[in-house]
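step=encode ok
step=design start
structure_in=
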């Protein structure tokens, strides 16, 4: 089997301070101050500073794509692209390619956030929301139903759809001998955003989707859709692309990925 038309994706978010100002009456405060108030109020309500999903704004979307032409990973848009453009590009890619989407906790976080932000910006996503009304092929296999395969949420699938069985991407990647998270964690994205380090956020997101894609390859090996030789060839494509990309963050990823882990 050859892996083809697969998009592993990940998003990075920050507090939606525009929403926070309106919701909490925080006019006159800086973005950093508004974000702090939002997190503090969330902690008072839930015991955690992690904001409810409607309070997140997307600042990066990265994709690791495998097509018949090969493999590549990149971040959508430009570092200063508005959120609406990033969200539109993501759903436009689904509209054009109808790929298999692969994520780590995409069903629990990334996709609901993208739903809310698409609503916020009036972004159309016809193919993504197809449930078989116009294309019968989507009736029993679509992006929205939990047990279908057009979106493979690896965290959900590998845990047996049980919350107590879930693990983080960093731990899973390291379990498999993959680099895991490099240079940043999700908790550091807000600080990096405040400091204007958009490129660092995008680089972090890109290494996350490469980790996710490599976990997906091992999953396809485990369930017999790839032979060991095919799996090795697919990993080789990723290695070759990383080596040729000429980007320091990708070179660090490659250096941290021992060949024997395949």
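sequence_out=
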């Amino acid at each position: 089997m050859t892996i083809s038309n697969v998009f592993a994706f990940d998003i990075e978010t920050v507090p939606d301070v525009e929403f926070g100002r309106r919701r909490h009456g925080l006019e006159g405060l800086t973005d950093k101050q508004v974000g702090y108030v939002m997190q503090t109020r969330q902690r008072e309500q839930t015991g955690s500073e992690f904001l409810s999903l409607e309070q997140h704004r997307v600042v990066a979307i990265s994709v690791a794509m495998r097509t018949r032409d090969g493999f590549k990973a990149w971040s959508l848009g430009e570092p200063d692209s508005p959120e609406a453009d990033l969200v539109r590009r993501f759903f436009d890619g689904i509209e054009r390619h109808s790929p298999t989407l692969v994520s780590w906790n995409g069903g629990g976080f990334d996709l609901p956030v993208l739903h809310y932000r698409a609503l916020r910006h009036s972004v159309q996503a016809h193919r993504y929301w197809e449930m078989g009304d116009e294309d019968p092929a989507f009736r029993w296999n679509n992006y929205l139903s939990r047990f279908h395969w057009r979106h493979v949420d690896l965290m959900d699938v590998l845990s047996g759809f049980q919350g107590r069985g879930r693990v983080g991407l960093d731990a899973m990647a390291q379990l498999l001998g993959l680099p895991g998270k490099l240079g940043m964690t999700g908790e550091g994205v807000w600080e990096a955003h405040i400091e204007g380090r958009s490129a660092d956020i995008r680089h972090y997101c890109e290494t996350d989707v490469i980790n996710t894609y490599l976990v997906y390859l091992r999953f396809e090996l485990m369930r017999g859709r790839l032979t060991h030789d095919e799996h090795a060839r697919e990993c080789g494509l990723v290695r070759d692309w990383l080596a040729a990309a000429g980007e320091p963050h990708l070179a660090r990823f490659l250096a941290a990925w021992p060949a024997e882990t395949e």
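step=design ok
step=annotate ok -> The chain has ten helices and five strands.
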